[in-house]
Design a protein that fits this description.
Strand 1 (105-110), helix 4 and strand 2 (134-139) form a beta-alpha-beta unit. The chain is 40% helix and 11% strand. It has helices at 2-46, 48-71, 77-86, 114-125, 144-151, 188-191, 206-225, 249-263, 301-308, 311-316, 322-330, 413-424; strands at 105-110, 134-139, 157-162, 236-240, 243-245, 267-271, 287-291, 297-299, 339-342, 348-350, 391-393. By secondary structure, the chain is an alpha/beta fold. Strands 3-2-1-4-8-6-9-7-11 form a 9-stranded mixed β-sheet, sandwiched between helices. The chain has a two-stranded antiparallel ribbon with strand order 5-10. Mean pLDDT is 86; it is low at 1-17, 37-58 and 357-364. The chain is globular and about 65 Å long. The protein is built from 12 helices and 11 strands. The protein starts with a helix and ends with a helix.
């Protein structure tokens, strides 16, 4: 009996050792599996930023290709390169990682006047609250000196976009100059040239028509194309490279936007300056409602939708100026007066002595002595709009109205169709 018990004891010892080994092996395997899952998890949580950027970039590239294919928009090496730049994220995110919840995006549209741009950038750098928002700079073509100035901005997030179909991008064909284009008052039948004259018998000038094309492309791009703004329903402020912006402009604009629904529910927009570019304001203790101006104007997506629905009116009106086109045909088509709300003292002024289409050359400075002398008082450095003020309305102001036939420069069918293509870029 004893031998049997001893025999069974000897039998159990190796089995116990085997069971212990299996338990140890299970623990090791579970530990290894856990470590593997942890590594995968870490990779999943740290890598997607680059993967998501790649996916977004590829997705945007596919969308851009589909747009070009659908609308038969022109392309060349430069436009393809600029298209890639348009997809880059804003700069200075490391300095300003978050935008304020109630921020008003600012869009600055520029051409090729570096002296002007330096002035407006310097003025923007002193604007109270500028670090809270996103500044989008829309270029009409690519000009190295202009690009360098914008790349030097360090006071807020900055996003650059470049007009892909600018005459300054296509220098040897439409939208630029084509070899067989009619010029000035050429007779297309006799000269066997390409083009349709405007109402005054003049053929298109690419440098002139670029003004209207850039504005319309920019509006469609900002409201419906850009990832950063296509979901933004609030107001967006639009300024040009020859607008000096006062330090209190952003805070005043925030007040105007907040007061507009109650103080002037019929106002379409808010303006930083009077519609009369020579005025510095009335100095009243009241808000002002008047016709919409073209210096420092802001509106929301609801108004953009109304404007976009009038694409045909905008694109076929024979005037190369976007603002005159709006005043003479688009706004009147809304059926009621288009008012904007502003303060009684300007927060932005137009400066300079040459037009956007004239550009900037070494011997053709647009600014006397390369500088401007705009007086900024203490009252212009802080918000100077009072919520308790009433609104004074300007009725029947002078200016371009329905019935004005336009200054011409916009008679070519190719410009009409390109303009309509811009309206369809992000709409099926």
């Amino acid at each position: 009996m004893l031998s049997v018990v001893c025999s069974m004891a000897n039998y159990k010892k190796p089995r116990l050792r085997d069971a212990a080994f299996r338990r140890l092996l299970s623990v090791v395997l579970v530990t290894l599996l856990g470590v593997s899952l942890l590594i995968v998890s870490l990779r999943t949580n740290t890598a997607p930023a680059s993967n998501e950027l790649l996916d977004e970039d590829l997705s945007a590239s596919v969308v851009d290709s589909q747009i070009n294919e659908k609308l038969k928009l022109p392309q060349n090496e430069l436009s393809i390169e600029l298209e890639k730049r348009n997809r880059l994220p804003p700069r200075n995110i490391d300095l300003f990682p978050r935008l304020a919840k109630d921020h008003i995006t600012i869009v600055l549209y520029v051409h090729n006047r570096p002296q002007y741009l330096q002035v407006v950038v310097k003025s923007l750098s002193k604007v109270v609250g500028i670090s809270e928002t996103l500044l989008i700079v829309s270029h009409d073509g690519f000009f190295e000196e202009m690009n360098k100035i914008v790349e030097g901005i360090k006071f807020c997030q900055v996003k650059q976009i470049f007009a892909l179909y600018s005459p300054h991008v296509f220098t040897d064909g439409f939208p630029g100059v084509s070899l067989n284009d009619c010029k000035e008052k050429d007779d297309a039948t006799k000269k066997h040239c390409t083009g349709n004259p405007d109402q005054y018998g003049n053929h298109r000038s690419p440098k002139i028509v670029s003004l209207k094309h850039h504005w319309w492309w920019m509006m469609n791009m900002v409201w419906d194309g850009l990832k950063e703004t296509r979901g933004h329903d609030g107001h967006i402020l639009f300024i040009e490279e020859d607008h000096f912006i006062y330090p209190n402009a952003y805070r005043n604009l925030q007040l105007l936007v907040s007061l507009k629904p109650n103080k002037c529910p019929d106002c379409y927009a808010a303006n930083l300056a009077p519609c009369d570019v020579n005025s510095r304001g009335e100095g009243w203790n009241s808000l002002v409602a008047e016709r919409m101006g073209n210096v420092g104007y802001a509106f929301n997506r609801t108004i953009w939708r109304k404007i976009h629905r009038k694409a045909k009116e905008f694109c076929f009106f024979d005037d190369y100026n976007w603002d005159i086109t709006m005043w003479a045909t688009v706004y009147p088509s809304f059926g009621s007066p288009v008012y904007t709300l502003r303060g009684p003292r300007t927060s932005a002024v137009h400066f300079g002595k040459c037009g956007l289409h004239q550009g900037q050359g070494q011997s053709n400075a647009c600014i006397d002595n390369g500088s401007v002398n705009i007086r900024v008082d203490d009252i212009d450095k802080v918000a100077n709009i009072k919520p308790e003020w009433d609104v004074r309305v300007y009725h029947n102001q002078p200016g371009y109205k329905a019935g004005f036939k336009g200054w011409g420069g916009w008679g070519d069918d190719r410009d009409h169709h390109l303009c309509m293509d811009f309206a369809q870029m992000y709409h099926s």
